[in-house]
Amino acid sequence: MRRPSSGLTLVVLLLSVLDLTSAVKHGDFKTCAQSGFCRRNRALAEEATAAGPAWTSPYELETESVKLDQGVLTGTIWKTVAEKDGGRVELPLQISFLDDGVARVTIDEAKRQKGEIKLRGDSKARKERYKEAEKWVLVGGKNIFANAKLESRDQESRVSYGFGDFQVVLQHKPFKLTFLRNGEPHIVLNERNFMNIEHWRPKREQEGEEGEDESTWWDETFGGNTDSKPRGPESLAMDITFPGYEFVYGIPEHASSLALKETRGGEGNYEDPYRLYNSDVFEYEVNSPMTLYGSIPFMQAQKAGSTIGVFWLNAAETWVDIVKSQKNPKALSTEKRSTHTHWMSESGVLDVFILPGPNSAHLYSQYGALTGYTALPPEFSIAYHQCRWNYISQDDVKDVDRKFDKFDIPYDVIWLDIEYTDNKKYFTWDPLTFSDPISMQNQLAERERKLVAIIDPHIRNEGSYPVSKEMNEKGLATKDKSGEKSYEGWCWPGSSHWIDAFNPAAVAWWKNLFDIKKFPSATKNLHIWNDMNEPSVFNGPETTMPKDNIHHGNWEHRDVHNLNGMTFHNATYEGMVARLGKGNEKRPFVLTRSFFAGSQRTAAMWTGDNQADWSHLSQAFPMILSQGIAGMPFAGADVGGFFGNPSKELFARWYQAGAFYPFFRGHAHIDSKRREPYLYEEPYRSIVRDAIRLRYSLLPIWYSAFQRASFEGMPIIRPHFVMFPDDEAGFAIDDQFFVGDSGLLAKPVVKEGAESVDIYIPDDEPYYNYFDQTVYKGKGYKKIPAPLDTVPLLMRGGHIFPRKDRHRRSSGLMKHDPYTLVVNLNNNGVAGGVLYVDDGETFDNQKGAYVHRSFMFNRKALICGNLHLEPSKAEAYEKTMEDVRVEKVLLVGVGDEWLDKKTAKVTLGEKNWEVEVSVTKGRRGKANVAVVRDPKAPITQDWQIEF
Questions:
Q1: Residues 6+ apart with CB under 8 A from 364
Q2: What are the percentages of helix, strand and coil residues in the chain, rounded to 5?
Q3: What is the separation of C-alpha 793 from the centre of its chain, rounded to a whole number of angstroms?
């Protein structure tokens, strides 16, 4: 949400300077040329590139300083500088080697590390470089490989490490690091000598040296705000090369393609680097490297048969340039293009993790081991959510709830935006329009539905408002640059202060506000939406806080900006877990707009304030896929588009697409027309209903995929390069994807007027149309019919997936419904799949209270087995599920010899019985389908069906 409502003061409207009829205002946000440190580092890169071999890097690793002790290498890098600055600068180096092959490289600055610098003015800011991001981000990285071995020569050191053939070669002069796997270089740091650590130096009154432009070294003005920079210039940069890797992905959030583009100009490329600086961008444009609401500085590189990654742990403003080496068209070599990246951050230490892969599953596990895996969400949260800015009253909410039932459209959650509050004061209700919130929540609870309410980090500056009064009296707000006064800015309530969630005392206080006994009229059915937490400040530089604001510990906002949103939603999550009291904890649902690496542990995200047009529908899947590979797969986009009014066709197609977003929510701006699905005429209403029902039918697939993501880090929806890492023809595809481990291949229609799509099939297995079992076979593109009432969806042979075919009003009412198993046979006539089930709301699954089953078809029998590692811990939960059974089995792609089959035998322990089998002959390109009706096979026990 981004637009002031009519009730706000004229001052806020003027400060916001926003126009509903226009798209993003580029002048409100910096380009690289307007960001001093980005411009300086880009200029250095251009100078180094132009000079070629003649370029002299000022960085040298002191040979005698290199030591290896218990898996941690230390050394000293010296930077040669002008004599007036001391001649050289000491930069401590540390490389930690981990068991799984991950290596962590950190470079600090000794003078700042020791506090041997002077701050400008009377600033209270810390003197050191910020290196506390790991406290918020990392949950792992402690498994040091103590047996690493060091070999040193005059100008080179080599370390072998990890349970695999991992090595790093340290070139001493000029400093360079080459990481090898199985003897082959995969990642090189400082290959192009763009490394730059802007060391501390005092500000001199005289002009800078000839050729130097000091205009942004000591202070910097943008949009009428001057950044005082009390520590002076302190940026850091490093070039990272992926030799032989042409494709790179990640570094969300950007409205760009999944495969990242080059950023140094040229046809189809960007002129500016990708920017990571969490910002409230109004009506963002598509196909842009412009910063958006969140940042995850993780990048994955892919070539045929190999995957690697880097994680740049820095929470300050960061820019990433990407260029690719050009192949010589006359050369006979089959060598692939390499990708060269240039990472530039405004402050902090250089802290980069090298993740060796060698495949996506390993890579995501390595990254998850560092930053944590996505939380297994409450089951209702992966169903359909209904939202708009704003439902105007409790009666409005109740009416919408009843209308969904009247038109037989399932949904699980309804949302309240800021207008539910009393004058934009969070933890309150408008006394006129929401006078009895409990009755509203109780009505929802009758159908197992939930309420989500928005709570933002800006607190109305009003002395009579208890939350504001207490926060300021206890000193829990973010401070201005003096470090003493609470920072005052403007947001929805007008004059506001911002909670400083870097402060443990502030987090403890914030958590307490969610206590069910203290949060007025809140029930256990209430969940939370954290918006505007970049933070968004209407009158701030680039619509956010000044960088010289002071947070807990006297760290400047510039150091922690990209972490800010995560600290806030973490605090909310902790409060929601604890709100019912010890022993009564339930999994909360928290949605955040701003995020950083590690946010996946406590929140879902959405892509922000999109527009109701086809380009934004098309852009959503690349953005969501990018979130998934960067470790935050619980992602979605506003279905229907936030701004504007979608056409009927666009609305229908968006619901078909949204049914395949991990987070599936319809949302709309306050000025848009009401667009609840039941308001549309036929056939659009039925098309949307069918799309939502399809999502509900497939919830077992989605929940099982979330469970795997929660302990292995695999994305929920998976791009082709993840599933088929040897197939380079699919590496750039970002408009179709696989859903979990189900074998479902989806390509929703995202183009106006389209009645068919071309789906790329990456292998020679049969792919069956989900709706009519038409068979598509043979690698390459296949034209799939896609009339308006159809979403293109194929089932890959070799997979079994569970679904639920009974239509209910919410997912909570489906918990004990029976399952249908869809068995899609591959070329060898076999298939396999999994099902994960737990209570969907408590943390009892962490104690073993779940069902985890495997399904295997081996040509002769369908076998159900147990995947639970500690079956005894599941016994109590299994008792609550003992009546849940498989009520139907569909076998797709059986041979003609099945046409005479009439019965099958079910065996359960010592019991067995016969069931009927009916087989339909496939015609006009369709597969044969066998159906077993009600085999009475419980999901909690081992059994088999013999044919």
A1: 629, 631, 712, 713, 714, 715
A2: 25, 30, 50
A3: 24
pLDDT block averages, 10 residues each, the chain of length 947: 42 35 78 97 97 95 97 98 88 97 98 94 94 98 96 93 95 98 97 97 66 83 93 97 98 98 95 98 95 98 97 98 78 73 98 98 98 98 97 98 98 98 98 98 98 98 97 97 97 98 98 97 97 98 97 98 98 97 95 98 98 98 98 98 98 98 98 98 98 98 98 98 98 98 98 98 98 97 98 98 97 98 98 98 97 97 97 97 98 96 96 97 97 97 97
Distances (CA, A) of 918 to 602, 904, 947: 47, 10, 12
Other C-beta atoms lying within 10 Å of the C-beta of residue 803 = 18
DSSP character at residue 774: B
Whether 274 and 263 have beta carbons less than 8 Å apart is answered as: yes
Element (H, E) at 189: strand 184-189
Q: What are the extents of the domains in the chain?
A: 32-371, 717-946
* CA–CA dist 147, 99 (Å, integer): 9
What letter represents residue 137's amino acid? V
Is the preceding omega at residue 535 within 30 degrees of 0, hence cis? Answer: yes
Q: Which residues pair with 586 in a beta bridge?
A: 842
CB-CB contact of 855 with 834 (8 Å): yes
Provide DSSP, 397-458: HHHHHHHHHHTT----EEEE-GGGSBTTBTT---TTTSS-HHHHHHHHHTTT-EEEEE--SE
The residue written with tokens 């400060």 in the block is 15
CA 278 to chain centre: 14
Are residues 775 and 768 in contact, defined by beta-carbon separation less than 8 angstroms? yes
| 470: Cα separation from own chain's centroid | 34
Give the CA angle between residues 226, 231, 235 to the nearest 5°.
Answer: 90
Asked if domains 32-371 and 717-946 share a fold, the reply is yes
Q: What is the C-alpha to C-alpha distance for residues 84 and 224, in angstroms, rounded to an integer?
A: 34
Structure tokens at 555: 């760290």
Cα 565 from Cα 295, distance rounded (Å)? 10
Q: Helix (H, G, I), strand (E, B), or coil: what is residue 352?
A: strand
Question: What does pTM read for this prediction?
Answer: 0.96
Phi, psi for residue 900 in degrees, rounded to 5:
-95, 0
Q: How far apart are CA 28 and CA 147, in angstroms?
A: 52
Model pLDDT, residue 11: 35
Which helix (H) or strand (E) covers residue 590, if one does?
A: strand 590-592
What pLDDT sits at residue 8?
39
Cα–Cα nearest to 479, from 455, 456, 506: 506
Q: In 777-922, which ranges are E strands? A: 780-785, 793-796, 799-803, 819-824, 831-838, 850-857, 861-866, 885-892, 903-908, 911-920
Q: What is the DSSP letter of 40?
A: H
Structure-block tokens of residue 268: 């189809």
Measured between alpha carbons, how far is 501 from 777 in angstroms, rounded to an integer? 54
Contact 101, 353 (CB under 8 A): no
Task: Report the first-to-last Cα separation within the chain, whole angstroms.
Answer: 56
Spatial distance between the Cα atoms of 741 and 94, rounded to a whole number of angstroms: 40
What does the pLDDT read at residue 277?
98
Which pair of structure tokens corresponds to residue 589?
A: 């649902």
What's the rounded Cα separation, in Å, for the pair 15 and 540? 9
| CATH T-level fold of 717-946 | Immunoglobulin-like (2.60.40)
Instruction: Spell out the residues 6+ positions from residue 843 whose beta carbon is closer than 8 angstroms to its own.
Output: 585, 586, 587
Residues forming the active site: 531, 534, 609
The CA-based dihedral angle spanning residues 858, 861, 864, 869, taken in that order and rounded to the nearest 10 degrees: -40
**Tell me, what DSSP letter sits at residue 381?**
G
Q: Which CATH class is domain 32-371?
A: mainly beta
Copy the structure tokens of residue 817: 């419904």
Element (H, E) at 323: strand 318-324
Encoded tokens for 720: 């082709």
